[in-house]
Here is the input.
Amino acid sequence: MSRLRFNISMSLDGFIAGPGQSMENPLGLGGLRLHEWAFRLAVFRAIHGLEGGDVNESTPVVEESLHNIGATVMGRNMFGGHPGPWDAGNPWGGWWGDNPPFHHPVFVLTHYAREPLVLEGGTTFTFVTDGMESALDQARQAAGEKDVSLAGGANAARQFLAAGRVDEMEINLVPTLLGSGERLFDGLGDSLCGLEPVRTVTAPGVIHLKFARR
Amino acid sequence: MSRLRFNISMSLDGFIAGPGQSMENPLGLGGLRLHEWAFRLAVFRAIHGLEGGDVNESTPVVEESLHNIGATVMGRNMFGGHPGPWDAGNPWGGWWGDNPPFHHPVFVLTHYAREPLVLEGGTTFTFVTDGMESALDQARQAAGEKDVSLAGGANAARQFLAAGRVDEMEINLVPTLLGSGERLFDGLGDSLCGLEPVRTVTAPGVIHLKFARR
Here is the structure.
């Protein structure tokens, strides 16, 4: 069966976004610092249609994280825009423009029903209102032989972690402090949700910690 | 000049002690899990007069942390016992028995004056009531050409970190969650106190992250 894989950048003090997340600043104050290691990589820039960039120890880690993904699940906060019901006249279309970098079906957990959003390049957002297990089932079916990516945000990730549904977790630990913001592991108690460390990679500006189900 | 070096074990969610720290359970609920990687090492057992144990990737890291230390500074909570004034008739003598594993001068930050406590094996606890800079000065003088170890606890460590006094920091990151307890980095804001990562070692049950002053 296809695995559920989760990849997230986290500060040394446990934050995955800074304080004051908003439409204008979805990563919160200082949150961009969690992603600088990725922004300078050629493999990351290529996803977003940009040339140039570095090749370093992070490159195979990022390539691995992108490999063999057939569908994505994400929470409403990650899809973004605004809380509450969709704006019927001009519903939020995601952060990623007309041709999002997924190129496969994406299932968005939400309390508010909405028709699927079909964009260019193979990305379709399907809005799931009957819970995380349903979203995961639909994503697995869409992925076929391939794996499912859990894209976040923190709230959705915690739900899947707490339910023991995450098969692989890559934490990109960034050696910086944010001091406040949104923590990944708040409220998960004292277990690592059935995951154990399997591999560590040290790279410029980041330490990749891979965990997998026992 | 001798450097101030700090070595601490921390959970993936940022805790260095579990909840409910007490005289009976100084590491808090679950806090022992942060030290299991060390307890099974021969180099750690030898410090405490025990035979046997493992030799693995952590061994040179621990040996390095013990090497060239001439004095230690610690906070009152780390020295332990009880808050408030010392019990004049039966003052707390530390967690470590008659022959503590330091074997050099130790300077304890406290609000309550007390005569030095001279124990076996070269360990003398000196109680410093005029602040962290004074404690560090005295420790540096006692250490001579050697370095000073910052032993904790969290509160004292944060003071030295915030003041930019820590020259080296080794975080032993343990891939487990504690969920609650005492965090190392609470209230330090969003800077790493002038430190940057210099080396990573992956070992059984722990990932050693070394930071040093730029």
